[in-house]
């Protein structure tokens, strides 16, 4: 069965109460009834409820940008899976490159978060990707393989299909420098091979692997046409309803 494209917007630490709601309203108007592509947006924690209310009657799902692995207690500043579900999230990003490289999250911490999210019924988007120096040193495949293996440690074959992998080369995130379709396809195919080794071929074929890193309306079509690219995780362009909708329309073949 062909994999259904999945396009998600990561709003990062952007918007305010009014602009988050306005962006969600514009998205609902433009792409809220799209069925052929799965869609999600990941606003900042504090606007999840408000954005969730706007999205409620649409086909756009709500996701969070992070989660903590404990249920509750003395973890100042953290947010639990139950809280995310309470406000209507179905997805959560785990291990975004800014959390790995700005905040300092390790593969072990990301794995704990992913396991907790999965166990509590959220769908994790596991981000992986190499630094520029790692690509230059020809370590891309090794780095990404390790991140996929460690990120999925302890995830059973029965659960892994609820995980989306997002390949996001760090040098392409927020830089305007996008991976070529050939570069993206090479790494996506390798990730699928790793999934086949960790699980089996059927599971690997069913799993969705998004590309992320400076996806814009002008480059989305060629990236989404790659055989192993099953969608996109979009940062900057997801803050503009027109641009995000145009990326979605490229996914619809338009
Ligand atoms: C991201 O935040 O995951 C991302 C890919 O950002 P951008 O599209 O801005 O590069």
Outline of the structure:
The protein has 254 residues and is of the alpha/beta class. It is built from 11 helices and 8 strands. An 8-stranded parallel beta barrel has the order 1-2-3-4-5-6-7-8, surrounded by 7 helices.
What is the C-level CATH assignment? Alpha Beta
Question: What oligomeric state best describes the polypeptide chains here?
Answer: single chain
CATH topology: TIM Barrel
The assigned structural class equals alpha/beta
Report the C-alpha radius of gyration, rounded. Answer: 17 Å
Q: In angstroms, what separates the terminal alpha carbons? A: 22 Å
Our estimate of the beta-strand percent is: 15-25%
Sheet of most strands:
8 strands, parallel, barrel
Give the tally of β-strands.
8
Could you tell me which ligands this complex binds, including any ions or cofactors? phosphoenolpyruvate
- Total helices: the number is 11
The CATH fourth-level homologous superfamily:
Aldolase class I
Give the total of domains. 1
Percent of residues in helical segments?
Answer: 40-55%
In CATH terms, what is the architecture?
Answer: Alpha-Beta Barrel
Apparent shape:
globular
Task: Provide the succession of SSEs.
Answer: EHEHEHEHHEHHEHHEHEH
Major sheet: arrangement of strands: 1-2-3-4-5-6-7-8
